[in-house]
């Protein structure tokens, strides 16, 4: 059964959450995005007569849905959306606690849904004083409006001081590559450039590096150590892992958003190998591939199955 990732987007009032959502929706490219908003803002759709209503749904005309919902009814709304979309993004109210929103998603008993991490937007131009508490819930921090400040690096350093090691993406106008949050559908391009292609060129988001790794079975302890000490600038890892440890010979799908980590077990449909894509900025591809190669295990039959316990903690 395909699971639908649920990503929480949080941040103080005015940080740019709605702008980021509009960017994701305009660049969905066939990915059906369900947007749940518990504080309806300026989502860029025509049918805004429902703005502010509870449990209301707006079709966005591109296969996406936008819903306004009271947080107490969140699980019921997610249940309505899960069969209609490929990913769900929850925009938390600017007054909402990101920890509480994340707990609500994690508490869902819907087997079709899986928590996809919390993204915290921080306004670089109006850098908040009360940030440390919210940072504790963040899997990925988007430092937005960096075009409006003279030294975004100093602000990023302050965030790292408050929450050491938290991944930080810098952005302007909420332009964040959807691939950092979820898997957009492959884009098909035939013939000449379309208007949307030209629009993308004019309003491009930050460029990210991508590193691919293909290998054999990996040792669970060594892989978890690699994931626990991910290189700076590495925001997303996705793909499949082969452990082949006795009792754990399934395919393990790996998904990370910032510090968030999840494995999903499934049957092998094809070649049994580890295949990962790692996305970030200023990545040292050779060092990353060397680090993953050091995780490979030539004799997985000799690995103690108890060493899989750390992996199973993160298994859906």
> Which regions are unreliable across 5 or more consecutive residues at pLDDT < 50?
40-54, 189-205
- First CA to last CA: what distance? 12 Å
Order of the strands making up the biggest sheet = 3-4-2-5-1-6-7-8
What is the radius of gyration computed over CA atoms, rounded to a whole number of angstroms?
Answer: 20 Å
Helix content: 10-25%
**Topology as a string of helices (H) and strands (E):** EHEEEHEHEHEHEHEHEEEEHH
Beta content: 25-35%
Backbone shape: globular
Secondary-structure-based class equals: alpha/beta
Number of strands: 13
Number of helices: 9
* Mean pLDDT across every amino acid position: 82
Biggest sheet architecture: 8 strands, mixed
What does this molecule look like?
With 316 residues, the chain is α/β, with parallel strands linked by helices. It has nine helices and 13 strands. The chain starts with a strand and ends with a helix.
